[in-house]
Amino acid sequence: MTRTQATVDSVLTLLREEPQHEGQLEHLAREARELPVGELVYLVETRPATEAALLFRVLPKSIALTVFEALPAHHQAELISGLRTQQVADIIGDLDPDDRASLFDELPASVAERLMHGLDADERAMTTSVLGYPRDSIGRYMSPEVLSLRPEWTVAEALAHVRTHAAEPETIYLLPVIDATRSLEGVVGLRRLLLVDPEARVGDIAHEAVHALATDDREDAARRFFSAKLLAMPIVDAENRLVGILTVDDAVAIIEEENTEDSARTSGSEPLPRAYLSTSIFGIVRSRIVWLLVLAISAILTVQVLEIFEDRLDQVVVLALFIPLLTGTGGNTGNQAATTVTRALAVDEVRVRDLPRVVWRELRVGATLGLVLGVLGFVVASLVYGLSIGTVMGLTLMSICTMAAIVGGLMPLVAKRIGADPAVFSNPFISTFCDATGLIIYFSIATAVLGL
Amino acid sequence: MTRTQATVDSVLTLLREEPQHEGQLEHLAREARELPVGELVYLVETRPATEAALLFRVLPKSIALTVFEALPAHHQAELISGLRTQQVADIIGDLDPDDRASLFDELPASVAERLMHGLDADERAMTTSVLGYPRDSIGRYMSPEVLSLRPEWTVAEALAHVRTHAAEPETIYLLPVIDATRSLEGVVGLRRLLLVDPEARVGDIAHEAVHALATDDREDAARRFFSAKLLAMPIVDAENRLVGILTVDDAVAIIEEENTEDSARTSGSEPLPRAYLSTSIFGIVRSRIVWLLVLAISAILTVQVLEIFEDRLDQVVVLALFIPLLTGTGGNTGNQAATTVTRALAVDEVRVRDLPRVVWRELRVGATLGLVLGVLGFVVASLVYGLSIGTVMGLTLMSICTMAAIVGGLMPLVAKRIGADPAVFSNPFISTFCDATGLIIYFSIATAVLGL
Questions:
Q1: Where is the CBS domain (chains A, B) (predicted)?
Q2: What topology does CATH give the domain B155-255?
Q3: Residues 183-202, chain A: which have Cβ within 8 Å of B?
Q4: Phi then psi for A212, rounded to 5 degrees?
Q5: Is B162 in the A-facing interface, judged by CB distances under 8 Å?
Q6: Where exactly does CATH 1.10.357.20 map onto chain A?
Q7: pLDDT 10s digits, A85-134
Q8: ipTM of predicted complex
Q9: Segment A199-255, tens digit of pLDDT
Q10: Which of A191, A289, A358 sits opposite B172 (nearest CB)?
Q11: Cβ–Cβ contact A329 with B under 8 A
Q12: Distant-in-sequence, close-in-space partners of A139: CB < 8 Å, separation ≥ 6
């Protein structure tokens, strides 16, 4: 066991004893201070709320702030209710305005309002401006505190300005250039300012800014951020006036949240609002039950399909043996296609207009996969159950794979086209759809081949 | 149609005509220059190799480099074979050493060697140093060109040093502090240098560095990078000597690749080496066929389970009707649990040692889900097929959901424990496993309740 692991265990034991005396708390504080920030975040995220708050209270102020900033907003809001008023005020005051806005969003309105009153006028104004943008818009994630330059300044003047104001904004490494009406004219990197002639004009060395509208979708803006390999991105309003700046940490947080959401939805559940181990059992059930019910009810379709073919089943009961294998293979083939296309959509490698190309590709891929599995299925089933069952299996596998690959490739595009999340519409629905369609194909082929 | 979209269409038409004359190429070049970089990347990524190379050849040098840098290494390697020698030499010379190393890795050894000879001695040494680290280690992604400071320097001296050397390294915003033996002592942000007293010593204002070993796993290092909200991270060798620096764009690329890999594996396929639309049909088939075969062969288990119960099926053929619904529900419940735990493992919200907690949570979640579905299944099936079939359905749904949730939660942890990728071991295997186990549960309950 590493030293860190031993300290984690000791902190865990101390937390579970719910220490009250000064001495015990002292001991806990000493042990906690030994831990790297990553371990502290893990502990706060995965322990029940009371233990998390206890641990948090014994941390030194600066470490507490770092740990707090690393938590998702929903979790921050919960933690706050377990802390002393003074510690809350300290933390809220030190947060960046965009992080503060996300937190206020999760707090009950009355608590948010009380905390808002504790802020000074400037901080309050910035928090309010961020909260004014719609949920899921990039405006919610930007920092309204931006250090900007004027095009008519010399580089020397610009550098002096940066040095004077370097302490406040979230970043000073990318500097938007704005005119007298705050209209965005371009950007200059701090590195460029250090490299060029101090007498040059800022307007002459600025280059065009990759930027976003404050009302743009957060995922689109974050993806643009990363494809352009930025360190920061200016955010403007509808009149091209600079209203804030998006920094790397916020763009990363957005992408990670979107990835978690996609991965949950692909398997037919909603993303959890907080860490798995500290979500209540009821919270986890809630994230899964709706989809599970919808899918189970859709699966009644398969019962109805089988009812139609019940007399054939009664005649040749051996047909029932292959049902899970065939539906399973159809589901797997469909999910492979759906996952590939969903991910390609997310990273902008496929667009809705590529639909015909996707269908044509999946048709060929599905037919090839079906050919391989069909030949294999024909050989194995013929050897064990005779030539006619073998023929049914071979033809069915071939058809099901082709059908499933096309459906799997198509569904995410259709979802995107009608404005739904491609991830929601994909895997579990495809499985259910392919189950029902696959059974129809199976029994139609069986009826024809076996002459039922 | 937007103006950009119209230009994309016009470029597509021009590319398909495979222009040869100067005039046509001129026209293509003019149109291509109108497009934003993001659209150019999309075109190069999604068109066949010959068209991509043609488009690339008409781009101005600086834009060509930007587009080239945005492509994955595998795709870069392919593109290179279609370009003129001079353009290749220009691009290779301008790439960062870490990106160059990734590209060389994908090229045939003879081509890589020839290109390596075209580099000057410094660039060649840096590329070789990066190529010396194992695949998937963070050393492969770092930039060996680092601007570092010495602790005994004053801040004024440090700033002068930065200004003189600002042009070469990938970043100047985080500056590692090293002693005479290149041993890493700490880091200073450029912002801090601009803020403090110019007479202060660098050693006094430096703080402890969040760093990584060059041989560390790339995903672990990239996740540490983002939890610490860094702009850059020093990379050291086993003796704590500074060997490179990891920048944001590289950390983002690693996380995005890992996410694509996880999403592919979760659905039982291997990630594609390049963009979906430009991968060959054979390449897509190859990414799916192995898993599909493995899963189909595992699914033979379900045939064998059903054979055991064939006489019961023959007696009560109505039992066959519910097979796809029951196996489907089991698979869905298992996948929900597996996806949640796989993602929680990826973002370090769950660790292998949490196994007992995960099992206990999934037991309760699964039982609750099973209770809801079981009651519903009992009521519906009783109304349609009578009380005894209703009882079988209710009890089976309850048991299958509980079993599937536990298996789904357990599998990713077991995979991680034995050193496999949790994503590989999870969803498709869970479906197959739950199918077979679910059928045993189903027919055992049916045998008992119906007295078969």
A1: 142-203, 205-261
A2: CBS-domain (3.10.580)
A3: 190-191, 194-195
A4: -140, 155
A5: yes
A6: 299-450
A7: 777 878 888 888 888 888 887 777 777 777 777 788 888 888 877 788 88
A8: 0.79
A9: 999 999 999 999 999 999 999 999 889 888 889 999 999 999 999 999 998 999 899
A10: A191
A11: yes
A12: A130, A132, A133, A214, A215, A235, A243, A244
